[in-house]
Amino acid sequence: MVRVRYAPSPTGTLHIGGARTALFNYLFALRHGGRLVLRVEDTDQARQVEGSETAMIRGLASLGVVWDEGPDVGGAYGPYRQSERGEHYRRAAAQLLEQGRAYRCFCTAGELEDERQRQRQQGRPPRYSGRCRELDADVAARRAEHEPYVLRLRVPQQGSTVVQDLIRGTVGFENAQLDDFVITKPGGTPLYNFAVVIDDAQMAITHVIRGEEHLSNTPKQMLVGQALGLEVPAFAHLPMILAPDRSKLSKRHGATSVEEYREQGILPQALANYLLLLGWSSPDGQEFMTIAEAGQRFDLARVQRTAAIYDQKKLEWMNGQYLRTLPAAAVAGAALPFVRAAGIDLSQGPTLTAAVELVRERSRTLRELVDNMRFLYQAPTTFDRKGVQKYLAEPVASERLRALASTLFTVAPWDHDHLSQAFDQVAEHLGVKRVLIIHPARMAVTGKTVGPGLFEMLAALGPEKTIRQLNRVADLLDRAEELPLSPALD
Ligand code: GLU
């Protein structure tokens, strides 16, 4: 039975790297009919952020990741928070001490720093010298004095520890390079490389799938596992996610947390789909997939070793595709919070679903979508600068808008084809090409130079609002008033 886990530390929001790791674990579990465990790694009290666990759980759930066991759903291998598993770590530490596989180290931070200084001066790599390895006689006395100590693992000085990584192949580490690392802090708090091994074994984890930044921890965890006589799981390290310039991904490349993507107006389905392509590709080259579909095809052998490059443009493009293909009512539901935030009063225009159908072809995010539908509910208060210069600056502009308004007054039924004919008539009457009517009309009614087809838009807007807005802008132009300009978007 395949058992995998996603093990976040609740130190902030759900970052896309973590979300991708969770997703790949879930896909692997789906593919093999296994189980996904959510484990909260909260031993480092100082780094914890209040509310982080809840935020992470919400972020994961929004992406469609479903775990079988975890702090919120329980399970047979709990508890699932490290802070509640102290007993297990204490027992394992006692076992290692008793068997001489770990030892107490009383070195102070100052002493260790002096040691590293000396090594650097001698041109040697700084590492723990092992000077508390054989303190035997001293230990009782120093403990009686309540001198604080840490526990260190007694790492074999020879040989190597070899990771058989399911993605990266064989990766060897010289044991001599891994000094006797600390497994518990003074007071007995377990460190990550210790606790994780005990948890993975006790939770019967078969495969550890996680980010490449943990590859260097793996030999340490294998050594801990061996010292405790535990079965070591299989390992698979996912490639890093880098920015297009191959630098570390940061805020300036776009959002980095799942929460921020939601605020930007990225649909969770689109984000999940995009994330599952960050390092994995489907054998048939298919890019658009639900998680369930990806779960049928997922294979660690198709996870790349080279870094995955994050591309915000592609994410937005994918999101645009989702906006276009999901049922309009589902998009409307997702858009509703943005509609509210934009102060749009839905009673002043068509249903939200109808508005979505009208503008979704041209929108990449829910924000854009809502911005593009705003004119249906409220007359534009600002106008695109370039559009004003290009289409409304000529003295004849107001005359054309008025001519159009009076012709539109007679249009019945008010639909695409009749509107189109009316524009033809006006153009003929004024002796100009039709586009010279269309562009100023679009600017007057929406404040923008681009958008869905004008006749569809006017059909949705209705005669009263259309005619009123054409005349209103004509008035403003005649009075030579400056049209209020919208802040440049592009
Ligand atoms: N708590 C670790 C992290 O958030 C998990 C590492 C692991 O998967 O072993 O990076």
In CATH's first tier, which class of the largest domain applies?
Alpha Beta
Biggest sheet features: 3 strands, antiparallel
Relative strand content: 5-15%
Mean pLDDT: 94
How many helices? The count is: 20
In CATH, what is the homologous superfamily of the largest domain?
HUPs
- CATH fold group of the largest domain: Rossmann fold
CATH-scheme architecture of the largest domain: 3-Layer(aba) Sandwich
- Give the tally of structural domains: 4
Short description:
The chain is mainly alpha-helical and 490 residues long. The protein folds into 4 domains: 1-70 and 239-325, Rossmann fold (3-Layer(aba) Sandwich); 85-238, Rossmann fold (3-Layer(aba) Sandwich); 326-378, Orthogonal Bundle (Helicase, Ruva Protein, domain 3); 385-489, Arc Repressor Mutant, subunit A (Orthogonal Bundle), CATH 1.10.10. The protein has 20 helices and 11 strands.
Provide key terms for this protein.
binds glutamic acid; Rossmann fold; mainly alpha; 11 strands; single chain; 4 domains; 46% helix
Q: How would you describe the overall organization of this protein?
A:
The protein has 490 residues and is mainly alpha-helical. The protein has 4 domains: 1-70 and 239-325, HUPs (Rossmann fold), CATH 3.40.50; 85-238, Rossmann fold; 326-378, Orthogonal Bundle (Helicase, Ruva Protein, domain 3), CATH 1.10.8; 385-489, Arc Repressor Mutant, subunit A (Orthogonal Bundle). The chain contains 20 helices and 11 strands. The chain has helices at residues 16-32, 52-62, 86-98, 109-121, 136-144, 192-202, 218-228, 258-264, 268-276, 291-297, 312-325, 328-341, 352-359, 366-373, 385-392, 397-408, 416-430, 435-446, 454-461, 463-478; strands spanning 3-6, 35-38, 102-105, 150-153, 160-165, 169-174, 182-184, 207-211, 234-238, 241-242, 308-309. The model has no long low-confidence stretch (mean pLDDT 94). The structure holds glutamic acid (GLU). Glutamic acid binds at residues 7-9, 41, 196, 210, 214.
